[in-house]
Amino acid sequence: MKKDTIILGIETSCDETAVSIVRNGTEIITNVVASQIESHKRFGGVVPEIASRHHVEQMTVVLEEAFENTDITWDEVDAIAVTEGPGLVGALLVGVNSAKALSFAKQKPLVGVHHIAGHIYANRLEKDFEFPLLALIVSGGHTELVLMREHGSYELIGETRDDAAGEAYDKVARMLNLPYPGGPHIDQLAAIGKETIDFPRAWLEEGSYDFSFSGLKSAVINKIHNAKQRGEILKNEDIAASFQASVVEVLTTKTLEAAKEYNVSQIIVAGGVAANKGLRKELEAVFSETDIPLLIPNIKLCTDNAAMIAAAGTIAFEQGRRSGLDLNANASLMLK
């Protein structure tokens, strides 16, 4: 029988300190996440210096808790996978240096993992992949379409040219005086609002799978400002519903068109915005009319966590990829 592969994952790219242990890239043994949302809420967004400090404070605690939750010992761990980028460089450095220290002390191989690869492989913790597949990544910093023909192979066929979808959500949320993080609050308002405002859809040039949400964000801001100047009252829920309808239509339409062009066997959705109920509902409706299976992970696996890093790290480890103790954080690491 093939020996199980046990990977310890570490994730600190933004404002979650996370450690997980995963078996064979598909089974979560333990998954611990320490969130910093409450610390950043009063600033209306993540403050990099505060995030880094919290990672330093939480890393040992989270690591110890991960092992307390399981009977797995260090002797059984095959390798340590860590997010090397992209993300906030100070935050990344805490995770990378922690992983390097553990790798040296425990004499375990080290595997650097791309954060977006982690989001993609969060799906494999629920269902195995069918190639070729198309991944729609939607998060605060990324909106991308990635074609995968095999494990560990990433072909970028579409990306954001300006604001990512999650970034646009947060900026519109601030205009509506909604708490941080704004995305979930817009999603909640959109569910009870009506699409009364015809906000623009940025389709770009024909045949392009790139995204652009900067114009939409500006259109929302201008609509709110103009309404205030004229003394008009706009309902926040209607603004949210109209804004979300624009984002969701562009995401679903481009994903469907790309899926047909590349004749994929599976669609997977990844990233924090994949937790958006409006987006999930529309994607399920659109792809239910096709013969292409759609996979969207549990909401807990959409946001940053270390299980996804361990899952992606498992593939990299089994393919023979190793990182040296000179591994460094790379805030603008490319997916390849």
TrEMBL record:
Residues 27-310 form the Gcp-like domain. It is an enzyme of class 2 (transferase). Belongs to the KAE1 / TsaD family. Binds 1 Fe(2+) ion per subunit. Its EC number is 2.3.1.234. It comes from the Bacteria. Keywords: Acyltransferase, Cytoplasm, Iron, Metal-binding, Transferase, tRNA processing. Required for the formation of a threonylcarbamoyl group on adenosine at position 37 (t(6)A37) in tRNAs that read codons beginning with adenine. Is involved in the transfer of the threonylcarbamoyl moiety of threonylcarbamoyl-AMP (TC-AMP) to the N6 group of A37, together with TsaE and TsaB. TsaD likely plays a direct catalytic role in this reaction. The lineage of its organism: Bacteria, Bacillati, Bacillota, Bacilli, Bacillales. GO terms for biological process: tRNA threonylcarbamoyladenosine modification. GO terms for cellular component: cytoplasm. One of its GO terms (molecular function) is tRNA N(6)-L-threonylcarbamoyladenine synthase activity. Pfam families: TsaD (PF00814). PANTHER family: TRNA N6-ADENOSINE THREONYLCARBAMOYLTRANSFERASE, TRNA N6-ADENOSINE THREONYLCARBAMOYLTRANSFERASE, MITOCHONDRIAL. The keyword Transferase applies. Substrate binds at residues 137-141, 170, 183, 187, 276. It catalyses: L-threonylcarbamoyladenylate + adenosine(37) in tRNA = N(6)-L-threonylcarbamoyladenosine(37) in tRNA + AMP + H(+). Its main location: cytoplasm. CDD domains: ASKHA_NBD_TsaD_bac. Its cofactor is Fe(2+). It is found in: Cytoplasm. Transmembrane segments: none annotated. The gene is tsaD. Fe cation binds at residues 115, 119, 304. The keyword Plastid does not apply. This is tRNA N6-adenosine threonylcarbamoyltransferase.
